[in-house]
Write a structure and sequence with these properties.
By secondary structure, this protein is mainly alpha-helical. Helix 1 runs antiparallel to helix 2 and helix 2 runs antiparallel to helix 3. Helices cover about 55% and strands about 5% of the residues. The longest helix has 15 residues. It has a domain of about 50 residues. It has a two-stranded parallel ribbon.
Amino acid sequence: MKRLIIWLIQKYQRHISPALPPSCKYTPTCSQYAIDALETRGLFVGVFLAVFRVLRCNPLSKGGYDPVPQKKKGY
């Protein structure tokens, strides 16, 4: 399931995103953040982090550098 979601995001990045004006206020972009979150944190935590990130990407946010949080040791 994780691979399917990543594949869909990559298709979005290659075919849909280039046709849209740049709008993401964060680095990395929200779609790349979602891929990074899925690859490093797994399906459930990755999806949660990606959805939370997209919700934060709005006109009221400052944006900036916002990488996927690393796992805490011992958890």
